Amino acid sequence: MSKLYVGSEVGQLRRVLLHRPERALTHLTPSNCHDLLFDDVLAVEAAGEEHDAFARTLRGQGVEVLLLHDLLVETLDVPEAKQWLLGTQISDFRYGPTFARDLRQYFIEMDNEHLATILLGGLAYSELPIQSSSMLPKMKQPLDFVIEPLPNHLFTRDTSCWIYGGVSLNPMMMPARQRETNHLRAIYHWHPTFAGQDFIKYFGDEDLHYDNANIEGGDVLVIGNGAVLIGISERTTPQGVENLAANLFKSGQAKEVIAIDLPKHRSCMHLDTVMTHMDVDTFSVYPEIMRKDLDTWRLTPKTNGEMHVEASHNYLHAIESALGLDQLKIITTGGDSYEAEREQWNDANNVLTVKPGVVIGYERNVYTNEKYDKAGIEVLTIPGNELGRGRGGARCMSCPIERDDI
Catalytic activity, per the record (predicted)? Predict the structure, then answer.
């Protein structure tokens, strides 16, 4: 049995979780896409085909690809899991006790393939065939959602992230994404690939309101050697970082966390949109954002279970010392400043490393890809004209669950 373990960002990738965009995208419209955190409406068929090309590229590199939809169907096949998930996603607090009961009754009868499609892709009131005596459905418009679609599930990176011998089930910042985490909680608890396996759940696996402790996987880079690099961003708070760090230290899985305070705006929503790890000593960086003077902290465990927090003057030096390297190689976004800004927006810096020096990125980012090539990094390109509109690249769209150390 292969091990659930992610030891780095650049070691050989062995198993990864993706989500092929389907029904959720059909529910995206110009009037709702912003609430659902998309800047644009995607062509559904084309996005699916581009995603298939991404999965094929990974398989071509010997990586096993797990698909979220399939895992969810197989999880719903476990009666206890189905019960829990319906209780959690169709809760009395979300719908009121009467309507919640009627909905759960309707969904429990449904075949699991169809149910998974609805949980991921949403359901409008006009599509709901049942009557309920509750006030709520009578007060809704036909095109209102009973279950909001989860188009951001495409970005499997954020909802949960594997760090060394365990996983963080991330309490997401945005209401449009919070239900995603429960799907992963159910999968990691009941799906045969994960059930009974030996791994740690660091954070986020309880029925709690995590308040201000938000964290998303796009901000978490497992740089190896027991170190974790985390961005404090629009979606990841210092409280989230400290809670995760405390549990990483308590379990002995990490020996230091480097936290970088990022500017809080949309173009650098997560650390991995402006910086990714491509080879043991090589990072891709968008220099407009990743300036050397960004506030950086180094968190390390103390013997009494508390943590030591110290300011670090330069995040590059902090990474060099964590990895025991003399000097990092930094490859900046390509082209002149207009081209670089456009390519960063189209996720030129958000590449997925499959093994040291080999990365997957969008073919449209020609200037940056050329720079990678010249620096000795091999870029396996995938089409991203539609997928890229969701503002996430190959790293955003993948959740490694098994990867070698460096």
Answer: L-arginine + H2O = L-citrulline + NH4(+)
